[in-house]
């Protein structure tokens, strides 16, 4: 039950993009087409889940026993950066088109605050391994949900009659904020 | 001390671990890249300006290798780059004529009237928001130089209240076209001298009251053009550059001088006597009957009548006609 709660909370209530405002750059950058948004979401999901898991081990089996928790940030970044590199290689091999579409945003996951954020939040909330993984996955699903929904809306916005001065990013930002308000409605769910 | 040691060792060990993992993965997941892509990437200027229509130089080099883009796809690199890429691809360069950006407005301070004075930030986009800018003609160049600032190649200057583009410096990146709030910049082939320099969609009377050199949509040029290169689109004349021979008949006819072109610089046909065999083909092709001569006799051009359209030179089977 608790695990279910964590999942719901990280997907909807504490949605990383729309209520914690982490990972905004890929959210705005790779959301022009639903297809690439899905790809990005999957890449982030993979990185986030794995990163949650590995950082858990790093925290409790390396940093804490040695009493060097202050190295948390740098150690986590090391983990995430390596993972992203790995994902990049895999995607380039498996799906060159997706690789093309994600372009510069793929290496940018390295510095994606959402990934580092989820790792640190896991530790701060004293989750155990299972909870950590669930929370990481939930956060990633939440991210994917947000970015795919957003991409869907933006695809329609392309066709809509938007006033000249709102075209492009202005209207995208307004849409994003409206989505954030909508997600506010989930507060109190858990 | 042990704290420092611990930190160094643990982070070092982690780095080593991940590093070797990645090294292994990079072998395992190695993607074969066409060496030509690399080579073309080297040859491209690396400006990543996007003028070619691809996200960056990398995108173009991929497209060239895949055969989706021509070897002269890069507008910035010029002939040298094209030659290099062509060599890599094993082709000879197919150098097309470059198209450059041109300001399609001649509403200089003297020609166009102002309707108000604008005191605001020096930016055409801002000025355009204030009831369309200070020019009484709402289609004209505002001359505040937003395009000047955006051009990375120093090709644009403001002269006499309107923008001017130096076509030799223009690399056809298209940044100015995007940024101009009045859309008065358009693509024109490099050698095209004859251009309708007006955008106004208004009625002739209104155009006239606002600008001395606007196109009033009278259609005289369309009627005058011997090659059918001009059509009237709404109240504006449009030249089909592929049909235009730059004879400048329209320039001479236009009552408001809205069509550019310098009549004094117009070329004339010259027949090289020793090559001419008197076939009369040129005389038949000339739209203004500027060539005289009997069959099997040397022909000659009546200079005053020749409009320099080059039709005769194109058709002469002996290659005896030069445009000078
Ligand atoms: S911005 Fe400059 S270089 Fe680019 S198209 Fe315009 S004039 Fe040419
Ligand atoms: S220059 Fe000559 S050919 Fe070209 S549009 Fe004018 S009249 Fe026609």
UniProtKB/TrEMBL annotation, chain A:
Main location: membrane
Keyword Thylakoid assigned: no
Known EC number: 7.-.-.-
Species per Swiss-Prot/TrEMBL record: Tepidibacter hydrothermalis
Compartments reported by the entry: Cell membrane; Endomembrane system
Family matches, as InterPro entries: Ion_transpt_RnfA/RsxA, NqrDE/RnfAE, NqrDE/RnfAE_oxidrdctase
Gene label: rsxA
Highest rank taxon of the organism: Bacteria
Record's protein name: Ion-translocating oxidoreductase complex subunit A
Keywords noted in UniProt: Cell membrane, Electron transport, Membrane, Translocase, Transmembrane, Transmembrane helix, Transport
Pfam families: Rnf-Nqr (PF02508)
Broadest EC class assigned to this enzyme: translocase
Subunit structure: The complex is composed of six subunits: RnfA, RnfB, RnfC, RnfD, RnfE and RnfG.
Function summary: Part of a membrane-bound complex that couples electron transfer with translocation of ions across the membrane.
Membrane topology: Multi-pass membrane protein
Similarity comment: Belongs to the NqrDE/RnfAE family.
UniProtKB/TrEMBL annotation, chain B:
Binding site for [4Fe-4S] cluster 2: 137, 141, 147, 180
Major location (coarse): membrane
Positions of the 4Fe-4S ferredoxin-type domain: 161-190, 204-235, 237-264, 267-296, 297-324
Key words of the record: 4Fe-4S, Cell membrane, Electron transport, Iron, Iron-sulfur, Membrane, Metal-binding, Repeat, Translocase, Transport
Top-rank EC class of the record's enzyme: translocase
Span of domain 4Fe-4S: 32-91
Residue ranges that the Swiss-Prot or TrEMBL entry lists as coiled coil: none
Binding residues annotated for [4Fe-4S] cluster 3, in chain numbering: 151, 170, 173, 176
PROSITE patterns xref list: 4FE4S (PS51656), 4FE4S_FER_1 (PS00198), 4FE4S_FER_2 (PS51379)
Cofactor: [4Fe-4S] cluster
Cited Gene3D superfamilies: 3.30.70.20, Electron transport complex subunit B, putative Fe-S cluster (1.10.15.40)
Function statement: Part of a membrane-bound complex that couples electron transfer with translocation of ions across the membrane.
Complex formation: The complex is composed of six subunits: RnfA, RnfB, RnfC, RnfD, RnfE and RnfG.
Family to which the UniProt record says this protein belongs: Belongs to the 4Fe4S bacterial-type ferredoxin family. RnfB subfamily.
Protein name: Ion-translocating oxidoreductase complex subunit B
Organism: Tepidibacter hydrothermalis
Gene name of the record: rnfB
């Amino acid at each position: 039950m608790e695990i279910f709660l964590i999942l719901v909370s990280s997907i909807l209530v504490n949605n990383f993009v729309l209520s914690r405002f982490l990972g905004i750059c890929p959210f705005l950058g790779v959301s022009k087409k639903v297809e690439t948004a899905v790809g990005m979401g999957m890449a982030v999901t993979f990185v986030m889940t794995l990163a949650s898991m590995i950082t858990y081990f790093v925290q409790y089996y390396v940093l804490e026993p040695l009493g060097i928790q202050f190295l948390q940030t740098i150690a986590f970044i090391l983990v995430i950066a390596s993972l992203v590199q790995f994902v990049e290689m895999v995607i380039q091999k498996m799906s060159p088109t997706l690789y093309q579409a994600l372009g510069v945003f793929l290496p940018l996951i390295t510095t994606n605050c959402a990934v580092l954020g989820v790792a640190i939040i896991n530790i701060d909330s004293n989750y155990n391994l299972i909870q950590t993984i669930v929370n990481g996955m939930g956060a990633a699903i939440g991210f994917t949900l947000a970015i795919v929904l957003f991409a869907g809306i933006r695809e329609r916005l392309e066709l809509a009659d938007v006033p000249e001065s709102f075209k492009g990013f202005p209207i995208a930002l307004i849409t994003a904020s409206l989505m954030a308000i909508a997600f506010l409605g989930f507060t109190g769910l858990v | 001390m042990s704290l420092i040691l611990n930190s160094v060792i643990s982070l070092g060990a982690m780095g080593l671990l991940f590093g070797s993992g990645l090294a292994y993965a990079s072998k395992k997941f190695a993607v074969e890249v066409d060496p030509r892509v690399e080579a073309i990437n080297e040859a491209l200027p690396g400006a990543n300006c996007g003028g070619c229509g691809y996200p960056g130089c990398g995108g173009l080099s991929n497209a060239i290798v895949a055969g989706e883009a021509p070897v002269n796809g890069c507008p910035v690199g010029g002939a040298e780059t094209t030659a290099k890429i062509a060599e890599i691809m094993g082709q000879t360069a197919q150098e097309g004529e470059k198209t450059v950006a041109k300001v399609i407005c001649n509403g200089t301070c003297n020609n166009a009237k102002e309707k108000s004075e604008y005191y605001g930030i020096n930016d055409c986009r801002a000025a355009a928001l204030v009831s369309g800018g200070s020019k009484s003609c709402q289609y004209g160049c505002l001359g505040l130089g937003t395009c000047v600032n955006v051009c990375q190649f120093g090709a644009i200057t403001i002269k006499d209240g309107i923008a001017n583009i130096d076509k030799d410096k223009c690399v056809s990146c298209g940044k100015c076209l995007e940024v101009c709030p009045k859309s008065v910049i358009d693509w024109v082939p490099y050698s095209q001298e004859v251009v309708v320099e007006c955008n106004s969609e208004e009625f002739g009377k209104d155009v006239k009251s606002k600008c001395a050199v606007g196109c009033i949509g009278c259609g005289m040029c369309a009627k005058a053009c011997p090659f059918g290169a001009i059509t009237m689109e709404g109240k504006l004349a449009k030249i089909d550059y592929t049909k235009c021979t730059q004879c400048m008949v329209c320039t001479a006819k236009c009552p408001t001088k809205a069509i550019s072109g310098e009549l004094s610089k117009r070329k004339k046909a010259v027949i090289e006597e020793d090559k001419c065999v008197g076939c009369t083909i040129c005389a038949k092709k000339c739209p203004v009957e500027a060539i005289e001569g009997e069959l099997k006799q040397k022909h000659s051009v009546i200079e005053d009548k020749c409009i320099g359209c080059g039709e005769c030179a194109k058709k002469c089977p002996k290659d005896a006609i030069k445009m000078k």
